[in-house]
Amino acid sequence: MHPVTLEGVTYSYGSGELRRAVLRDVSLTVAEGEIVLLTGPSGSGKTTLLTLIGALRAMQQGSARVLGRELQGASEAARVALRRRIGFIFQAHNLLGFLSARQNVAMALETEAKLPERQRLAEADRMLAAVGLAEHLHKAPGQLSGGQRQRVAVARALVASPGLVLADEPTAALDKASGQEVVRQLRDLARSRGVAILLVTHDPRILDIADRVVSMEDGRIVSANRPAEGPAA
Amino acid sequence: MTLADRIFLPLRLAWRQLRAEKARLASAIAGVMFACVLVFMQLGFRAALFDSATSLISAMRAEVFLIHPLTMASFRPEPLPRARAGQVLALPEVMQATPVYLAQSTWRSPEDGSRRTIQLIGFDVEAGAMAFTGLEHVAAALKQPDSAAFDLRSRPEFGPVQPMLEALGGRPLPVQVGNRRLDVVGTVEIGPSFGADGNLVLNETNFHRLVPERPFSNTDLVAIRLQPGSDIAAVQAQLRALLPQDVAVLTHPELVAWERRYWETATPIGFIFGFGSLMGLIVGMVIVYQILFSDIANHLREYATLKAIGYGNGYLSRSVLSSAFILALLGFIPGAVASALLYDVIGQATFLPLGMTLDRGLTVFGLIFGMCAAAGLLAMRKLRDADPADMF
């Protein structure tokens, strides 16, 4: 079973005469361990698609099966429960400023019923070490560089061993070197854990990490190709 | 998530968030502390009013009392026939019945001659019906014609009676009360009330010399002492059956409640202090609400992020409520300490029985806790604005 299977997803904002369709009959599949880049101009529906797959919005029309859970008609509680199995990486790191790096990462494990505190912190430390931040466990986000903060966000997204990672422009606020470092680590960790990644980006510098590049326009998928360079190793 | 985790983890998140912004935390604590002090003061004054109003009655050593049914408060009594004090002796359980006379007169300060209204309390000073501190030392001297004992806890405007007595080396201090010269032969301790700033204790004969217009056949209150081991409720019922309807038969707690009820219902004072407490709570709630509301508004992205990564509304609501409870606790502790100090200062200045009690401490803690919880519940509505979909 694929982590993501969309069939005929249609979504509109507004109502009556102001109703505007942003997704029109979108169908898409993301396989286990696959890295899919979602591109397209502003307003093409990429972000709305990401929020629907991430169970951040209620579905309107069509079917979205994410990590084995049908989102059409899913309750709020069911969507919250599903979000705990998805890793999120935002354009701005969105770390909690009053928590240290390890506390931020451990927050992604606090919703887990079984893990005791010590184990949560140990997992957080291990994940931060994996993104090269072992020396910065106790620093607050304000004490880290932009690239380091985004790596903390990557660690937070992956620490709960999600089946799917959704990322929105994770390199937009980073310089070239930092951006490449973040996506390289994201790719390596995802590959080693068999995690599917759906990544919205306009950044041509990171196309080479993708297995597939899906282009959207006016709420429709217009192409789905392997990048010219082929999937990253 | 275990029940302990469901409580502890949001509480810890709330504490970390509060602690991170120390200036904001300090202002929130100051706000709660302010509300706390305001409520403590209002409730303290209210209690002092009732305690002082009933201090005379509380000092009476009797189990059952007779008063006129129309008497509203002891400082303004309706007379009842003195003969009722003799009638109650018909019951074998009654050991003693002491008529008590109450009136107000004008005291002229022995220091500067200024005039103030003073409460006169007349009774058989050797009957043992009153437990005023110091009474036993002056009881014999009070039997002398035109002698009186001054209440040491009267307001200072009555003059430095105690030092003047000491200066006289045991001789009485001559004073003017009404149109008569009296000798102050000693002191007792009763305390001022909202009805009287000072008290003067007299033997009943001297009371009638001082207030001749009051017929001897009428009294204001009868204090009845029962034989040890008597059933107070049964005696009360017997007395009600025995006596005519021109007297009300009350137990000691009922008489205290009677007096309190006057101040609570027949005067605006009880309402004013109650309203003051409410105002304090509302001001405190607004302060805490604004702090919590702006905290949520300033951290909306963080809350939305938490929602996005799988935190439910329940967890975040518990975190906001935890913030409210932490503020309640941190504001209450200094508020209670400051209030205790203020009670001391104001008590010394006003001679009112102001003091911190466990009951009041728990009541105010409950009120402050409720106030912060209400503020937290109101502020929680802002959490709805944290939309995880906006994070992308």
Automatic annotation (TrEMBL), chain A:
Gene3D superfamilies: P-loop containing nucleotide triphosphate hydrolases (3.40.50.300). One of its GO terms (cellular component) is plasma membrane. Pfam families: ABC_tran. The keyword RNA-binding does not apply. SMART domains: AAA. This is ABC transporter. It comes from the Bacteria. Signal peptide: none annotated.
From TrEMBL, chain B:
One of its GO terms (cellular component) is plasma membrane. This is Lipid ABC transporter. It comes from the Bacteria. Residues 28-242 form the MacB-like periplasmic core domain. The lineage of its organism: Bacteria, Pseudomonadati, Pseudomonadota, Alphaproteobacteria, Acetobacterales. InterPro entries: ABC-4/HrtB_transporter, ABC3_permease_C, DevC, MacB_PCD. It comes from Teichococcus deserti. It is a multi-pass membrane protein. It holds the Pfam family MacB_PCD.
